[in-house]
Amino acid sequence: MQRPDYPRLTRLAAGFPESNDETALTHYAIESLRRGAHSSLAQILATSCHLPTIQRFSPQLLPNLTTPETELNRIRLILALDYQDSIETLNHYELLTPDNSYTPDYEYTNPEKPEQNFNRKEPYPMPTLAQIFENLSEEQLLLYKKMEEQGLKPRLQLTPIGLTLRKLKKQIDSHKELENQNNTTMWDDIQGHQLIYASKEFSVGRNSDGDDTLEKEGGISKAEWITRNDGWLVDIVATNQDFEADKKLQQDGNGRWLTLGQQAVNFHNQFQKEGYSHISYEAYMLAQMRAILEGKPLEEYSWTILLDSLTENEKLVSYGFWNRYHVGLCYSGANLRYNSGLRCRRSVRVLWNL
Questions:
Q1: Residue 258: which residues within 8 A CB-CB, separation 6 or more?
Q2: Integer CA distances (angstroms), 49 to 16, 31, 44, 195, in order
Q3: What is the pTM of this model?
Q4: Which domain-ending residue is among 21, 55, 89?
């Protein structure tokens, strides 16, 4: 993804306000905010000479330019840039039509479970930034700030969830951006109709062999998930390349590593307590697409469990990784014990279609 020449833009902003490069100047101003600039919003806009471009992001975004920029306005501006970056990423991987929509390719029919049936042929238009901001609460903006303070690199992300995982895999593999990048690996038994999305609660069970299992409550099928979200998942996702997990969620009181199922429950309970959600296979692949374009794929030294899309088999837990120059989507046994290489990425879910 081509990024603006920031040193050049700094010179332009300082001495050449006649520049007509509005898009680049918009990136410059908002990136200044992303880096923590706290000068007034009006000063930043005046310096960058790009007010019309920012106003086009959303009529409600900047209601009063004479008011000093608040912390929440700073975050909104960052999310506006993320929105544009998300469009660029989707376009780069040829996932959007010119009118910013897509037609789902996921299909499934099961006469015995009609709630899982899906065969839509009409396109899903991308949510507008105005729709997202209308449903973005102050509490969610504060969760963004908390993620930012923890170094988790939160980014607004739009995921076309009506596409199959195989379609997303195909687009990653047909647009290799990194030297020596290999094809994505995906286990054959990862099938959309067999996944459970957006489970509300998790607990550790025990099977007949005495092994831990991951019990799920309240999940829905992919068809229901697509329909409820009008084809688009809008998340603020933690996109830092690697991070340290809280060992209190990974170990027992004696410092012994817990099973993957036990760790998953601990991560979920902690996220739920703090107001966060999880991410799915689809959202993870979109996050990897953007990270690859920036030259820093996620999970360079670790892997992450994906609790928003789990197999029906309670012995297994979904996860994603980057290893040996490729993205990987797999399962692992809930009874296995894992060390600090395990992660769980958090997100803030924006219900944009209320």
A1: 250, 251, 252, 266, 337
A2: 10, 15, 8, 49
A3: 0.82
A4: 89
Structural domain of 46? 6-89
Tally of structural domains, the chain:
2
For residues 92 and 175, is the Cβ–Cβ distance under 8 A?
A: yes
Does any domain span residue 111? Answer: yes
**Model confidence pLDDT, tens digit, residues 296-352:** 999 877 889 999 999 989 999 999 999 878 999 999 999 988 876 788 999 999 998
Non-local CB neighbours of 254 within 8 Å, separated by 6+ positions: none
Position 354 in a domain:
no
Instruction: For residue 327, give the nearest of 282, 267, 277, 278 by alpha carbon.
Output: 282
pLDDT tens by residue, 190-216: 889 999 999 999 999 998 888 889 999
Question: Which residues are paired to 237 by β-bridges?
Answer: 155, 347
Low-confidence ranges of the chain (pLDDT < 70): 1-70, 340, 354
Q: Return the pLDDT at 167.
A: 97
CB of 135 closer than 8 Å to CB of 66: no
Structural domain contains residue 285: yes
Q: Which of 319, 170, 143 is nearest to 237 (CA)?
A: 143
Q: Give the E-state strand segments of 130-193 in sequence order.
A: 154-160, 185-186
Confidence at residue 77, expressed as pLDDT on a 0 to 100 scale: 77
